[in-house]
Amino acid sequence: MKDASSDWFDSCVSHLTSEGSLRVWSVLVTIFGDLAQNKSDQISGSLITALTSLVGIKAEATRVALHRLRKEGWIESTRVGRASVHRLTEYGRNQSAAAAPRIYARETSKPEIWHVLVSSNSETSRKELADQLLTGEYVSVNPVTAMASGPMPDDLEELLGFETSAISVPEWLRELFGPEPLKTAYDDFWKSVRIIDELLPQTGVDDPMKTAVLRILVVHNWRRIILRHPVLPAYFLPADWKGPACREEVSRLLDRLPRPHLATLEAELNT
Amino acid sequence: MKDASSDWFDSCVSHLTSEGSLRVWSVLVTIFGDLAQNKSDQISGSLITALTSLVGIKAEATRVALHRLRKEGWIESTRVGRASVHRLTEYGRNQSAAAAPRIYARETSKPEIWHVLVSSNSETSRKELADQLLTGEYVSVNPVTAMASGPMPDDLEELLGFETSAISVPEWLRELFGPEPLKTAYDDFWKSVRIIDELLPQTGVDDPMKTAVLRILVVHNWRRIILRHPVLPAYFLPADWKGPACREEVSRLLDRLPRPHLATLEAELNT
Known about the structure:
2 copies of one chain form a homodimer.
Chain A lengths: L6 H10 L7 H12 L7 E2 H10 L4 H13 L3 E6 L2 E6 L1 H15 L9 E6 L3 H12 L4 E4 L2 E5 L9 E10 L2 H7 L2 H20 L8 H19 L16 H14 L5 H8 L2
Helix pairs in contact in A: 1-8, 1-9, 2-4, 2-9, 3-9, 8-9, 8-10, 9-10
């Protein structure tokens, strides 16, 4: 039977998981990325199961996901009797570190330099553009044009490249870069983080497990939205774009839900 | 009957008019642009007829062309008894002045700033791009992309614009911007100016009428090629592009054929 003080927590979890079933392996990536980024960090199987069960994920699903991440080289595990501990591999740590600035930055980045790549209609040229798009850093302007922040690659072969710091953005580009489904995702996320902000106890969350779970869910939902598209400053997006407001609110929430030490969490399991 | 000393002149004229019939009004534009650019300059009908007849244009064709240029606002004419004098209008002078730097510059210009315009598929956006292309300053990269030297226009509406000073140029762009027919036109012009350079008397041309006619033909042929396309520096063009070599040779020839004073030419008519 739940005590009444837990109602706000269940509401928060329910708002942060309302978008349907979570991909468990992806939640685990968030957990490791948020709580165990350092080389020496490791998380016990019991702690992982405790955290995931708090968001409604079954122990069996967690086990399968751990297995998958291990197979893909994200994590490595050590058995100690019937218990086990898990940590990010070097590959997993690098992936986490690469995404961290985009996830945790307090301000939407405003790159000063951009570059634009234009392919011809030849197969090799189109292939070269497609390969660049696969990196996930580019936004597609039209079938033969893509752009990304930062300086132009210096190994372009069959692509026309421009480096630019002065861009005139028409309305159609804002609509192209900020399409309705993505806009709605931000709007929905905005609503749920506002609700979480309301629901969190004014006096602070004094339960490290609950703090960890809410952090993880906030970071997880946020990560899933922002990693759907490359870095795009406000001037490339529709006027009522909620991205920067969401980022501010995420920072605010993470301040209210400071990252617990792993040792504290592990200790909680035995209480 | 021609004297032998005239053979080199006829050969020059024949080489410089070998590409078929000259558009007479266009030759007149060259004449006014080369010999009568100043506000106070005027050319008698007799001098124009004398110059054009030296390149094989009939008096009647010259009269028709003068009429056309007058109607289009390029020149204005004053009758003095049976004689008449012609001068560029302000419009004609402005047009000539606008083209002059491209025609007479000793070095191919190398703009440091370029801008690129990209349209969407919407009709208004495509129309805006088409309007820009009509100015003649843009080169088309593909159906939705055009570029030109200089800063980006500040009144873009439905076009995406980039200003750039760092461009990576693939081979296909060089072939697109320097297509075979244009390349051949430069190659042919290169051959003929080389021949003119050989044919001109080492001691200099001492006949001001012949000097004027050859200048005009060189400038005319050159103008017809370079005004076919916007300014394009060497790095946008195929490796064996003859443009810069042609420009050097044109400068050399014009040095050898210094512009005669109009008064000198008018005086020649009465000798």
